[in-house]
Amino acid sequence: MERIELADGQVIIGDALEVMKQMEASSVDLIVVDPPYNVLEGFDLDNVRWDVFNTLADYVKFTEAWIQECFRVLKPGRQMYVFWSQKYLPLFFKLRNPFTLKKILVWHRPNLVRKFTSRTWVYTYDFVFYLSKGEHVKVFNASFLKRENVDVIQCALPQSNFKGLDRRVHPTQKPVELIKLFIKISSNPGEVVMDPFAGSGTTGVAARLMNRRFILIEKDSKWKDVILARLNEANLGMRLEDF
User: Fold this and answer.
1) Predicted local distance difference test score (pLDDT) of residue 113
2) Which partner for 103 in 5, 44, 130, 155 could form a disulfide, CB atoms 3.0-4.6 Å apart?
3) What number is the average pLDDT over the span 81-103?
4) Closest CA to 128 of 80, 67, 56, 189
């Protein structure tokens, strides 16, 4: 395990379950999770090996384990956002899950990045489970007038030809603006946001832009330099906005 201490957060290269087991209970204010979907078997395994499980039972065991640890480290009354695939929607409701499900959100991505035939339906959305540790939600900073609390959110999927922080560098990268919205609504400035499957570090980028602290955990060390570079890029963006 490698821990990189930054002024506003930590980047930890290591197994999420092992790292979270070492964390104090009730020490995190918000969790944003983009976990393995178990849907990428047959793709380039060098890039998506983390998403492939031997059996569905293995996937369930793994998922229940990280959910339990997230529940332990999250403060009471605080929230977790979980990205989830359409394929396993029914499975989510069968998991051993101590969280309270408050809402199922839909992230609609209008840009299509592959060519499909006209003989199949095209995926253009992911589910996002909005969960709470307990029934009572302590923080909800959405603006109704800005339509920030609608349950269908449209954000473009990052692509390699994009400029700026949404340039695609990771196969399952999420939009910075989408994560910024979750962070704005469910945390306050200075609080701690955790992402146990950090990938290219989008949650940390969004947290830095929103003046939150962050804990990013990523098992694959090849993403360390990418995460740090994108965090530096977020710093540059903040400095440019100051002038």
Assistant:
1) 59
2) 130
3) 95
4) 80
